[in-house]
Design a protein that fits this description.
heterotrimer; B: 574 residues; two-stranded parallel ribbon; 25 helices; 3 strands; C: 359 residues; alpha/beta; D-Maltodextrin-Binding Protein, domain 2; 2 domains; 10 strands; globular
Amino acid sequence: MTGLVLEQVSRSFDGHAAADAIDLTVAPGEVVCMLGPSGCGKTTTLRLAAGLESADSGRVAIGDQVMDDDGAFVPPEARNVGLVFQDFALFPHLDVRANVEFGIGDQPPEARRRIVDDLLERMNLAAHASAFPHTLSGGEQQRVALARALAPGPKVMLMDEPFSGLDFRLRDQVGEETLALLRQLGTATLMVTHDSDEAMRLGDRVALMRNGRIIQQGTPADLYHHPVDVFTTKFFSEISLVGGFVKGKSVATELGLIAAPDLADGTPATVCLRPESLVLTQGGGGGAHGVAATVLSARNMGPYDLVWLKPVTGVAKYLARLGPGTSPAPGAEVQVAIARSGCFVFAD
Amino acid sequence: MALAEAAFDGQSSGPTDKSRRRSAQFGGWTVLALAIAAIVSIPILVVLASVFVPTTEVWSHLVDTVLGRYVTNTLWLLAGVSVLTLIMGAGTAWLVSMCAFPGRRVFEWALLLPLAMPAYAIAFTYGGMMDFAGPVQTALRDWFGWGAGEYWFPQVRSLPGVIMLMGLVLYPYVYLLARTAFLEQSVCVLEVGRTLGQGPWRTFRRIALPLARPAIAAGMALALMEALSEFGAVQYFAVDTFTTGIFRTWYGLGDLAAAAQLAAILMLFIFALLAIERISRGRAAYHHTSTKYRPLPRYRLTGWAKTGAIAACAIPIFLGFLLPAGQLAMWSIETAPAILDARFLREAANTIGISAAAAVLAVGIALVLAYAVRIAPGRLARAGARIAGLGYAIPGPVIAVGVMIPFAWTDNAVDGWMRATFNVSTGLVLSGTVFALLFAYIVRFLAISLNTVESGLGKVTPNMDRAARSLGARPGATLRRVHAPMVRGSLLAAGLLVFVHAMKELPATLILRPFDFNTLAVRAFELASDERLADAAPAALAIVLVGLMPVLVLSRALTKSRPGEGQAKSRPGS
Amino acid sequence: MNKPKLRFASGIVSVLALALAFGLTNWLVPEQGLGTATAQSPGSVNVYSARQEALIRPLLDAFTEATGISVNLITASADALLERMKAEGRNSPADVLLTTDAGRLIRATEADVLRPVTSDLLAAAIPEQYRDPDGYWFGLGVRARVFFYAPDRVDPTDLSTYENLAAAEWQGRVCIRSSTNVYNQSLLASLIAHDGAVGAENWAAGMVANMARDPQGGDRDQIKAVAAGQCDVAVANTYYYAGMKDGTAEEQQAAAQVALFWPNQGAGERGTHVNISGAGVGQFAPNPENAVRLLEFLVSPDAQKIYAEVVYEFPVRSGVPASDAVASFGTFQADTLDLHRLAEFQSDALMMFDRVGWR
């Protein structure tokens, strides 16, 4: 049994490919976060899954039913998907109960009441059943939107930046509670976000998109630790970039030789250094421990410190991450070495 | 396809054929909208088609002699009505929306009253009152012992007079839409203005007014289109505008083609007006940027400002409604016993019945058109909706001819075919029926309902459509369950506006109606044009009174239109 | 999931149906069974009238009472009715076209919407001058376009002819309505017929120079302006003055302050400009016999008496007395110009008005 399947789905507008050969599967009970900068096509993909757009080519299936392929198209109202929006899109003329009931009007009143009562109870909204949306707080509105989407018992839940309208203090808590519920209900959840932290914290898997294509998908750890290109690397943390040519299975940089075992000699390459891959040793004087560098500035970010460095003999600035309160003072000279993890080399 | 069908066997809502998919998805609505637009456009196209009839010597005569005057007078009329409706409409709307002064709550609804006053009724009451031989000038002469020509008195039967009277009955459009816009403006934006050191007047001029500009422009466009198409008042005052020119050419010279060509030029005026507005608006966005609404803090007016505000609101109400309605009432007291009979009641029933039917139809059609444009935006649908709305600017008698000719042609073609094929005559099926009349009303007044419904739908975010559809509602159900209730206020407003207009409608009613079908407007006009003003008064007063009811409902709906205010427990303090 | 959609569709349909049914049941099949379907039913006659309902209803009611034939009526402007008859073509339900101004009737004849009628009764009752020689239209009442003056400011011996009113001595003293009105068009047409195009155009220009104010209002307004002292002489139709004499107190007072003058009565003069209100039978009339009966009824002595009392026109049938108010005007000599000549020059007259700036 599969949840949501997109196979080679494409859609273009005015010759511009908003979704280009998308392959994506979301299993029941799984949460997949679709991540990418604005305009990358993630919302289009979500709309294709919902049936709000039809694909130019490719195939969309939910469960074992084909929703959209060369032969057929099932309109959104017949797909049994839930949709939650950033602005919640609650119906202002209906109270909370009527909003939640909206999608299950074809059921007998008895069943309807049971479903709504149950959802309101779970969502901690029972007290607001007869309130109108504009009288609720942001978190409450979000829960109503979710309850409304869940009421018809969708196999697939599609959420477009569902938590970004919330206060940041609420965001984590509401997000985790929401997704816990969806996992528990066995709903295949596809959630669009532009926030990599949110994607990593909430998604079982993450699909990163750019220019209408999925660049990489996998577990958050896969994407973080095995990015496929500079773009992907950059998306999850700040990085320092340094260019060079491959020579003898490594790239020579200001910070020393960096191994590139898979690249042929003479290939121009970019080295990406996550801040944690820069290992600092206090004290001046070069040596086996790395390259001498000067601390330009340092700042405590709470759980960690960020330090900007410049190699004594170099021109570029590099960012390193240290434990809280351990950073050297600006002007101090340190030794910088590169750790294997957090350091990636890509051919240009 | 076979596979897919097998897979979906037994589904209540099966997949549609992919090759027809896009059109199947939204296509029904687009096709419906285009069909409606095409049918409604027929009379307009019939008029426009006259442009291609070769011009006659009548045309060159018009160009040589009177066309220049028609153009000049029409431009003056447009300019004058623009200024008056802007000042009286937007100014008073801002005063009652943003300021606190004695009587404000009464002015809020009373400023809409002149909407109930037909232009021809105000024309003949003022004509009767202010004439040289009328009671006002006679009294002045008696008091001061002046003789003829020894004093100056404003001439009401003149271009400035027409401008003044039209301004008085047309400013409520601007007031209505401007007030809605002011009420909907986020208080945050206005507060930002005040914190940036702008006084009330500058806040109005630099923030509130520009933000309300699309609404004000829409109101002025309605007012100007109506001023251009107004027939009774300009005819009665014999002011040479395009409209009078059209009928002079038609009736006097018997040249319908030349008259229609004049009407086509009139349409160019409208296009120019709309284009100027579009261009000057440029690329600026006027969407509301904040969804936070709080009761507006009102500016408390004192001293001269207070007196001025009261006067500014009271004068249009007095001149545009109380004075003419009072005169009509006085005449009515004189003549009502002889006029009020079973006939009169039947005419009133006819008037209300057909106006209500026109209102329901016009709103329903406008909703379909506006919704089709919304769910399947495209140049074609949009253009269709625009053309369908053009009828508002075309004088009623011209529309009437535009309706009459195709209807009669269809009837005769069907009849001819039936005679030839079955030797049976079907006669005139559509011509001379209430259906033809209703159709003419819709052609004329669709613009009103369309504008109102469109602006209402514009406030519903597209995500609501998507949410509803993902919850199993098809486009039709979405319209019924989400849009219709959310824009109920707009639908009501649209219906009432069409109702009031249809009730006042005269020229198309006269020529298209079935036998023995009279309305109050027909009665009032016939008697007034026979110079029996006092006898015409009861019917005119009845139109005004019936027209008052929707105006009051409209006013109540307007006060509630502030987002969130409908259900809010506390009302804004004043 | 089809249900909501179906319900909505049926909702829309039922609203439309309701609205239509409301309209249709009320008026498509009204009490008397009107409309085209029943237009052929015996015992009715369909009248397209450019004369207002209030004026002619009493006569039509009298006709129904006398003959049992019911009358279906619509009123509108003559040109609009003519356009409607043209559009309706062979299926037009119009039995009778009733209008003022011979020019309109002649225009209708030329548009082929009227049929010739032979009726000895009509021929006997209506003087030849006031009916079409081929029987396309018949005059029912006669009106004259005359002068009204203020006796305290105008010596009636100074008044003489239409032509004279354009003379310099009347500068700034004359009130007359807009040239959009057909009565003025016919008046100028008669001047074109008598004095030629050049003379008529000079006359129109002279009149414009003599106007006390821009043309405005109707004929009653011109008479009232004389009473109020704004001008000394007004040009207006007789029946308006008669109507004012029987009108409101204020109108009676105004009427009492002015006097009527019959222009062009002197020896060798052509007489006062007159016109008719009249009627013709529709080319495709479904009830032609009833139509002729209506016309014959309208020229009967009794109907002519009502006509004279209600519309204050001179009866077209000789021997029928005018209303008291009209009779008080005295007798006059009417211009015997062929009414066809008016129709011939009406368009020229309107263009002439445009050229001399007569608004």
